Amino acid sequence: MKVGYLGPKATFTELAVKRVFPELEFEPYRTIPECIDAVVEKQVELAVVPVENALEGSVNITLDYLTHEVEIPIIGEITIPIRQHLMVHPSNKEDWQNVSKVYSHSHAIAQCHKFLHTQFKGIPFESVSSTAAAAQMVMDQPEMKTAAIANELAANEYGLTIVQRDIHDFDYNHTRFLILSGQKVDFLSVSSRGYKTTLMITLPSNHPGALHQVLSAFAWRKLNMSKIESRPMKTGIGNYFFIIDLEMELDDVLIPGTIAELEALGCGVKLLGSYPSFIVDLN
Amino acid sequence: MKVGYLGPKATFTELAVKRVFPELEFEPYRTIPECIDAVVEKQVELAVVPVENALEGSVNITLDYLTHEVEIPIIGEITIPIRQHLMVHPSNKEDWQNVSKVYSHSHAIAQCHKFLHTQFKGIPFESVSSTAAAAQMVMDQPEMKTAAIANELAANEYGLTIVQRDIHDFDYNHTRFLILSGQKVDFLSVSSRGYKTTLMITLPSNHPGALHQVLSAFAWRKLNMSKIESRPMKTGIGNYFFIIDLEMELDDVLIPGTIAELEALGCGVKLLGSYPSFIVDLN
């Protein structure tokens, strides 16, 4: 079985898929739509794409593609804590505080704002296309005494030495991925921390209180939401749809009953998936 | 008066600030936290940062920084439609269909998935750190016959010729920016399409229906929401806060009454700003 993921290699997405599917084959794709198309067209059996707080790839593209373009169910979710490390070429490891420049992805640089602002004040940094690309640049130019901000996998992949661990500002930041597949998959190798069910809901008209009415259908059944997000429809400003994550597996009564009621009220409801949720800790 | 914005030059953010503040001075910043810090520390009077669908900069960093790190009000919002064009070096404009490679930011490449998949099938593309950097690369290597996907400003700034307009997949995609400032600013030069008020709300405890109760306070007053988004608190998984945009200016009765009720129920409510909203059309 083959897993497609958003590349390049040594990114957080690769970290996630290697932990959850250690025994499978992997194929990196260059964009989220290409990766999702690959599973729709059966070039791969599984696709793993970012859906929250991703460094690589726009989360909105994932949601928009899943809701507007393709019919492929979500069969799992992976959450990994974001941990950024400072790394240098092994020959510069004693002298790392005197690096001349720091390379990373622009979001990773922003995530390490306090560290760079206090401990590396005045040292220039440069955004490159991914944290893995930053690691490669540092490996390729040892004489320049540069550093990269990247994850553990990038340090291993490119042979860099981590000189300062966990330099990100917020400890509880995480990145979230969806596993997409047209077939049933057994996740025996990882332990789940629970189930989620994701629905896409469009409102009958943009009137005050319509969303409140929708949420009533969940609330009186005590269906807990772990996420709600409004996104503009691709049909113009002013029309919205909502992505709602419920903290339970699809059952025979409560969720189908809610969907039926919402449809009777004129809402559009699309079940994007009901799936186990995994947390992968990197240490 | 000086406006700080998220660089580099010739990005959508620069497009936005130049349209709304044509007569002011500009200063690009390298990250969103640096740009917000600049207005807090009064190096600039205004800061413009992306908050939705941005190519450059993580929207989550903007929301997290505004809600957790600083106290600076939102004083305006700018929405611009996303329009991506294919551009080449002027010397290659007759032969643009035979380019050897396409450069752009990874999100822009994903936004033009259908165009690349159908009209440029098989031609390799490469992600670089911004659409402006892509335009610069194409300008610097005319003999390589490369193309960039970028906006109109980048074509002008780097002297490229647009050979195919509006190659993005979705016509109604837009990107949204917030204007932050500690002082009152007059937006006489642009016409507003209305007002918004943005609130950050934390729930008393993560129990089913708490959000529904919060929304009830808005719904019975017929306060229309244009956006709702849940975000994890930086204190660990399982705690959420909500960002709610109301489609009205802060009044003396309805919004203050809602806030007082929510606080009485044990919610935390922070008013992030009440501000005019502008749409900038690029043609």
Task: Describe this protein's structure.
The two termini of chain A are 27 Å apart. Chain A is 28% helix and 31% strand. The longest helix of chain A is centred in the last third of the chain and has 11 residues, at 254-264. Chain A folds into three domains: 2-82 and 173-180, D-Maltodextrin-Binding Protein, domain 2, CATH 3.40.190; 85-164, 3-Layer(aba) Sandwich (D-Maltodextrin-Binding Protein, domain 2), CATH 3.40.190; 195-274, Alpha-Beta Plaits (2-Layer Sandwich), CATH 3.30.70. Chain A contains nine helices and 14 strands. Chain A has helices spanning 12-20, 32-40, 59-68, 106-111, 113-119, 131-140, 152-158, 210-219, 254-264; strands at 2-6, 25-29, 46-52, 74-81, 85-88, 101-105, 125-128, 146-150, 161-164, 174-180, 195-202, 225-232, 240-246, 268-279. In chain A, strand 1, helix 1 and strand 2 (25-29) form a beta-alpha-beta unit. In chain A, the strands form two sheets. The first copy, chain A, has a nine-stranded mixed beta sheet, sandwiched between helices. Chain A has a five-stranded mixed beta sheet with strand order 7-6-8-5-9. Chain A is α/β, with parallel strands linked by helices and 283 residues long. In chain A, 48% of the residues are buried. At the A-B interface, helix 2, helix 3, helix 4, strand 7 and helix 8 of A face helix 2, helix 3, helix 4, strand 7 and helix 8 of B. Chains A, B: GO terms for molecular function: prephenate dehydratase activity. Chains A, B: This is Prephenate dehydratase.
